[in-house]
Amino acid sequence: MSARVTVRVPAKVNVQLAVGGARPDGFHDLANVFLAVGLYDEITVTPADELRVTCSGPDAAQVPLDRTNLAARAALTLAERHGLGAADAAVHIHIAKDIPVAGGMAGGSADGAGALVACDALWGTRASREELLDICAELGSDVPFSLVGGAALGTGRGEKLRALEVGGTFHWVFAMAGRGLSTPAVFREFDRLNEGVRIPEPVASQELLDALAKGDAGALAAAVSNDLQPAALSLFPELARTLDAGRAAGALAGLVSGSGPTTAFLAGDAAGAEEIARALLDSGTCRSARVAVSPAPGATVV
Ligand SMILES: C[C@](O)(CO)[C@H](O)COP(=O)(O)OP(=O)(O)OC[C@H]1O[C@@H](n2ccc(N)nc2=O)[C@H](O)[C@@H]1O
Ligand SMILES: Nc1ncnc2c1ncn2[C@@H]1O[C@H](COP(=O)(O)OP(=O)(O)OP(=O)(O)O)[C@@H](O)[C@H]1O
């Protein structure tokens, strides 16, 4: 056991998000093609007298520091499963947050997966990969992917993962919006917009999987899709201007990341990404713009 563990966890973009009809449990079946991108939160755990969460970074004020924080929930779930008492499981979790909050990039999920891996190392609980994935799925639909990183197809509510091959580096620009969007609200809007419509079963696009496997940015750009985009745009119409600005600046594709409101732009190369980021900032249609590459590794002890 060591006295301090830091874990780095990436954000994600959904290059395909096919959404089925609402299930009886309120969730939606998905064909969710996740790609981890090189924007990271770092979670550091140290022994303490009681469970405590702190957070730093530009969006820190929006992060809950109580037991609803996914990082705290991860620590409590691991402790409970391994029969650790309150004193043994007391830990200070610090989140150095670089992933936008409520941005559709799985920031909270990253912190859940990171705290889980960090506490497992700190406490010497030696949970199997299978158990870690099981706890992640209990915490949220996106959390298992935050653990594994790379690229994966998520089915069910997104928690059942199959690793995907990625044959090259993709260059992205992410435009952060001035406010967040609630994921449940975006799924509710999806249901409202599709009322009375027969929604087909979600399936992954073979063209998209081939483009990923080849590392072909042009082919990936032609195949990206997000069924939640109309719902995110309906709740946040100004995002259409951001999408227009990124496309006008030469992006191969522009789309809403997951449930939004972060927008993602695929560039042909690193220089193109820098140019698009500058144009997005100059357009005044976003709060900030960041470049990042994919794929990125999952939760990693640093
Ligand atoms: C939009 C995505 O980020 C795409 O990766 C995910 O589907 C959302 O994953 P998440 O934030 O981990 O979501 P969860 O914490 O599991 O669920 C939050 C809420 O989102 C809705 N939800 C989520 C996942 C899913 N497959 N169907 C849903 O309808 C439900 O209303 C649920 O109560
Ligand atoms: N560690 C955390 N970091 C950020 N938000 C958290 C965390 N734990 C709980 N939350 C809550 O979760 C909400 C969603 O935050 P998050 O940043 O995960 O959204 P998101 O990136 O849109 O999620 P996703 O892409 O998985 O749908 C926040 O508004 C906050 O109330």
TrEMBL record:
All copies of domain GHMP kinase C-terminal, residue ranges: 209-280
Entry-linked InterPro entries: GHMP_kinase_C_dom, GHMP_kinase_C_sf, GHMP_kinase_N_dom, IspE, Ribosomal_Su5_D2-typ_SF, Ribsml_uS5_D2-typ_fold_subgr
Ranges that cross the membrane: none
Top-level EC class: transferase
Domain GHMP kinase N-terminal: 69-150
EC number: 2.7.1.148
One Pfam family linked to the record: GHMP_kinases_C
Presence of keyword Hydrolase: no
Catalysis performed (reactions): 4-CDP-2-C-methyl-D-erythritol + ATP = 4-CDP-2-C-methyl-D-erythritol 2-phosphate + ADP + H(+)
Residues binding ATP, per UniProt: P100, V101, A102, G103, G104, M105, A106, G107, G108, S109, A110
Annotated GO MF terms: 4-(cytidine 5'-diphospho)-2-C-methyl-D-erythritol kinase activity
Pathway per the UniProt entry: Isoprenoid biosynthesis; isopentenyl diphosphate biosynthesis via DXP pathway; isopentenyl diphosphate from 1-deoxy-D-xylulose 5-phosphate: step 3/6
Gene3D superfamilies associated with the record: 3.30.230.10, GHMP kinase, C-terminal domain
NCBIfam families in the record: ispE, PRK03188.1
Family note: Belongs to the GHMP kinase family. IspE subfamily.
Function recorded in the entry: Catalyzes the phosphorylation of the position 2 hydroxy group of 4-diphosphocytidyl-2C-methyl-D-erythritol.
Protein name (Swiss-Prot/TrEMBL): 4-diphosphocytidyl-2-C-methyl-D-erythritol kinase
Organism: Streptomyces yaanensis
